[in-house]
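Predict the 3D structure for this chain.
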Amino acid sequence: MKLVEVFRIAINNVKTNLLRSVLTLLIIAFGLMALVGILTAIDSIIYSMNDNFSRLGANSFSIQPSGMSGSRGHSKGKTKKQGAVISFAQAMELKDKYQFPATVTVSLFGTQIATISHKDKKSNPNVMVQGIDENYLNVQGLDIENGRNFSSVEINSGVAKAILGVDIAKKMFGKKYKNGINKNISISSRKYKVIGILASKGSTASSNDSGVYIPVTNAKNIYGSARRNYKISIHAKSVEDLQGAIGSAIGTFRNIRSLRIGQENDFEIKKSDSIAKMLKENTVQIQMGAISIGLITLFGAAIGLMNIMLVSVTERTREIGIIKALGATRKNILIQFMTEAVILCQAGGILGILLGILIGFGVSVALGGSFHMPWAWSILGIVLSIIVGLISGIYPALKASKLDPIDALRHE
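Done. Predicted structure below.
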């Protein structure tokens, strides 16, 4: 019997026993739907976690003079020598020369005791004023509720414009605080034009809600001095890029600080290690858990398919005897039943993958995140459906191929 004829018979048998084939197909489909659906949904959750952790600073680090955080040196018990402050010129030079694909922001803490006023409204003398550049809000995960951010031109020229935290805006302009855009306020008797109001960050970030932000060059003219330190923060695209971003920053800043080869850094890197590590650990654990659940579901589907194939062998004993009597070999019978199992698994696998993708898409929409086509999980699903078909079909196929044609013809 030709191989093509064996395949044709296998396909015809699948069509002939349509109801049983559909039920078998659904067993595999739901098994793979669980696997691909869970993994796709987990990917959506992980993308959402990445975005949220990114906004918490997991992808960011700052550069500060050594010794500022009270870190210890190489000698036990000795505090590391304090490095020179980071000047405005050094900070801006790093921002210009940094080549790694990450965002650099330069800021200067102005004061914590400013008084803000507008007409007859006046705040308590405890408002924080911070000098920032055009990248600061993005790096810190702050959103503009109304108005706009500073432009690079405004940062370079040091114009007297300000962005207000929402609490300050409400104190100055009342319930219609959103109408405060383009109005003038005074920061400790200096006039500023309001161009933006920040969205509330809640009680966990009250300093942002109660702060005022002005261009860093403007803050430099008012609060700066030779002994004031400028903060450099760098935001990488992902946690995986963090080490590369740090290495590039260290190399670039060593040149800016004119440090010789072998000379110890007089600055240090401060990063959110705990958040980044938690993200990586959770990602691996969640994916492994999802794969385990999916494989258990597929194992159950494989047992169901094998049971149906064994029933099929029993029902078709006379048919097998006739085929063997017509000249079919054990190999032909083996291939026929294996082909039937693989066809059913592939059809069920494709259906299961499509349903799984739809579930993943639904989870992405529910979480408000972005959907990413799960090509890797789809390929895994197709491969697993072939493996399940082979494993589930091999024992029934061997049983069918070993049947004696005379005994098979006598079977009722």
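The chain has a mean pLDDT of 83.
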